[in-house]
Design goal:
77% helix, elongated
Length: 391
């Protein structure tokens, strides 16, 4: 039964050939040998068939497969080229040719071929998928976008297309589209963390804290029973904690940080933020120091975490250590940071270096002014040459 099916199938590829001719007979003989794993004999029959008819596309196509089986990609590519040349309307040959172009890094040739296939069958999702993937790989986002949009309509349950569109929106900083795509995708893929993350962070950056909170809490509810998502749950709990702190709900913030660390005890952002906010509140400073210590062990060159570590030491009265770590933070910082400079001045003041402290406060003031931040307190420090707490 299997042999009969193969012969019938190949008969279709040989449409237009006269049965009984020698080339056709040799071609069919090659298929029988191939089916019986006699590949070398099959190849000899194909060569003999091409000696009779060098334009037999089906024979060139089979030779390309034989060459691939031998891992001779260049010979396979040449054979496929001839198959396409002699049967230009055969979509199977063109698809195989395009895929081999992809394997050999000839992306532009692959794109040209898939475009031809799309023109011949514009509603075939496969051609849209190939083209979108190629364009995404080459970061040609404008070209990829219409194919991805079509795919989300005809195969909406394929998550990769939504993820690619979201990548484009993020790259273009199109906040409205980031939110729209993410929220559509959340309905289709409620257990995929990324769609909550990007929507929530976009709301956060827009200072729409209620929408951000709702997004992250929805993520927590939908993902909480999935242990493999512990990493993401820790991230979402951290964002919720940050939001609560911004809203002035410190107790809820600290509880959320605890949740974040239960999911991932090495969540460095949670460790740092929790430690810093405790230090600002002058609350549980011993715990804050332990968390800041761990954060700097995980990322020893992170200027923000070093600054937190320094500030915890400052609040605990360990001024020498505070000075060591704030200077290290400033050394590691990639840009001038007003808050770090102010901290440096505060620490220098406590170390008895008043002139140096005022100098750092003046530097911090310049940065604050450039960022439209309030300078009322730091001007008071400079004018009176004295440290004042933010509280």
């Amino acid at each position: 039964m299997k042999k009969t099916l193969i012969i019938v199938a190949i008969g279709l590829t040989l449409a237009g050939s006269a049965w009984g001719q020698k080339a056709d007979s040799l071609f069919l003989s090659s298929l029988r040998h191939k089916y019986n794993d006699a590949h070398e004999q099959a190849f000899q029959d194909l060569q003999a068939a091409l000696a009779e008819d060098s334009t037999m596309a089906a024979a060139w196509f089979e030779i390309s497969h034989y060459q691939l089986w031998l891992n001779k990609k260049e010979q396979a590519w040449n054979a496929l080229q001839k198959a396409v040349r002699y049967a230009p309307d055969n979509a199977v040959y063109r698809k195989n040719y395009a895929e081999l172009c992809l394997e050999s890094g000839q992306n532009e040739e692959a794109i040209t071929t898939f475009k031809w296939l799309l023109q011949s069958d514009p509603q075939n999702p496969e051609w849209h998928a190939y083209l979108s993937s190629l364009y995404m790989h080459q970061k040609q986002f404008d070209e990829a976008k219409p194919h991805l949009q079509y795919l989300t309509e005809v195969v909406p349950d394929d998550m990769t297309n939504w993820a690619s569109l979201l990548t484009i929106a993020v790259n273009e900083q199109d906040t409205a589209n980031i939110i729209a795509l993410s929220e559509q995708a959340q309905q289709l893929f409620p257990d995929v963390p990324d769609f909550y993350y990007y929507a929530g962070m976009t709301y956060f950056m827009q200072e729409d804290y209620q929408a951000a909170m709702q997004t992250f809490q929805t993520a927590m509810n939908n993902l909480q029973d999935q242990q493999e998502n512990a990493h993401y749950l820790s991230i979402f709990a951290t964002q919720i904690a940050d939001l609560y702190y911004l809203m002035g709900k410190k107790k809820k913030a600290y509880n959320a940080y605890e949740t974040a660390l239960q999911y991932n005890e090495n969540n460095v952002a949670a460790l740092n933020n929790y430690a810093y906010f405790l230090s600002l509140d002058k609350s549980d400073l011993e715990k804050a120091e332990k968390m800041a210590t761990l954060a700097t062990q995980i990322e020893p060159d992170n200027a923000t975490y070093l600054d937190t570590y320094a500030w915890v030491f400052f609040q605990r009265g360990k001024i020498a250590l505070a000075k060591t770590y704030i200077e290290r933070a400033l050394e590691k910082a990639t840009r001038t940071n007003g808050e770090m400079l102010e901290h440096y001045g505060d620490i220098l003041y406590k170390a008895g270096e008043i002139d140096a402290a005022v100098e750092q406060w003046e530097r911090a003031k310049i940065v604050y002014l450039s960022e439209n931040e309030s300078v009322k307190l730091i001007e008071k420090k400079i004018a009176r040459r004295k440290y004042y707490s933010h509280k």
